[in-house]
Predict the 3D structure of the following.
Amino acid sequence: MTQKLCFCSLATIIALVLSACALPTDNERTITNTPLAPAIQLTVNANTSTPFNAVDQVINYTYLVKNAGAASYPGPVSVTDNKITTTCLGVNTVGNLDDNLDVNEEITCTGIYTITQADLDSGSVTNIATATVSGNSSAPVTTAVTLTQNRALTLSKAANPTTYNQVSQIITYTYVILNSGNVTLQGPFSIADDRVTANCTQPGDNLLSPNEEMSCTSSYSIVQDNLSTTSVTNNASASNGTITSNNATTTINKAGTVPSTTLVPGTNVEHRVENGEWLWQIARCYGANPRDVIDANPQLSNPSKIPPNITVTIPSVGSTGTIYGSPCIFIHTVASGDTWASIAQQYNADSNLIQEVNPGGLVPGNKIRVPVGPYNYP
């Protein structure tokens, strides 16, 4: 048998050996670096047991700092929060009561945050906190607390005068738009009225903050058809394109007629409180007994001070006097030459009652309240 031998050059042999022993390239090898967890651990808790919906409410925070490492760290413990000043217990108050935060020992820190209008407008409070012990810091912890937003507009409306008796008589309507929610609202704001076109003066910044008001006006000219009826009624609402207010209804009566109403004497009525109204006046407005009205609303902690936008029960309307119905108060802009008597005549109101609720006197340009109903009331 004949054997064949294969001879390779020395260069070929060296190339084969290097190829077999070559290290993997960067594309061929994978190196995984697992970051070590910080020895200091931080847990943040915000007390949300009650809803947050108002400026100046306080959020209480608790920070739990733990040594999860393998060595002790000298105190003190501190927590840095981008929105809150925190206070931490001393390390000598926990564990073995020494001056170190030992392995698995925990320290509690606290802090409070006061809610601002900007927070309510954004809908949440977000903060970032980091714990530090002897130069060792935890991972940053982000905490978000959701705030309860209420977007609302309330519209009140008044007519001047409240009676008419001739064609072309001008009735001026005044509207007051109130931001009755807790969130700043973006304008522009407008009035939708089923009888007239209203003109509104927008806020300078085109915004309405909570409890901020703005005014609109319109005018209506009495026509012949109005003299054939006993009253003229129109309905209006306010809006910023997203939020729409309550419907505000205003009725002016033909001179010499009794105020018209669809309310049935002896029945109970639910009344939404408008700005400037008080419980006694609401009773007068519906011809009800004020004492009965107070008794029918035990939810009111102080019947002499009632906030707007709540609903109160009026029992047995018409049991004590004339049923006028809402609105219970008109807003009148004082004109030059106005007297208490002339204003009372315009609104079919009582001049003595008007004077009592407007102690500042009559100053042209000022707005005064004109309550409906008689002055002497049970």
Notes: The longest strand covers residues 58-67. Helices lie at 10-21, 117-122, 224-227, 279-285, 290-295, 340-347, 351-357. The chain has three domains: 40-146, 150-260, 261-378.
